[in-house]
Task: structure prediction
Amino acid sequence: MNLTEYQSEAIKTAKKWDDRNSALAYQAMGLAGEAGEAVDIIKKHFRGDKPLNEETTEKLKKELCDVMWYIANICETVGFQMADLPQINIDKLRARHGETFSGYGDRTGAGR
Result:
């Protein structure tokens, strides 16, 4: 399944809102919540509470799928295709870092 097909399928399961601002507010809060759930799995691994084993990896996949669902719905609400995002991101990264990447996502080099 490509991202255009995914977006088309994902929006079929979304709540229909009377106005765009309500839809965006709900979708943004949902995105933050699901991203938080994914981060919590990684946090527990980092802290040593839960190893990244088959069970927790599957749980992480499902949370990341929920993140994708909200991204697809935000894209739809705003009026663009999720399928455009990967190239936009690569173009942004190449403009910032060139063809190679040092491993740091900001220009400051924080964490080096």
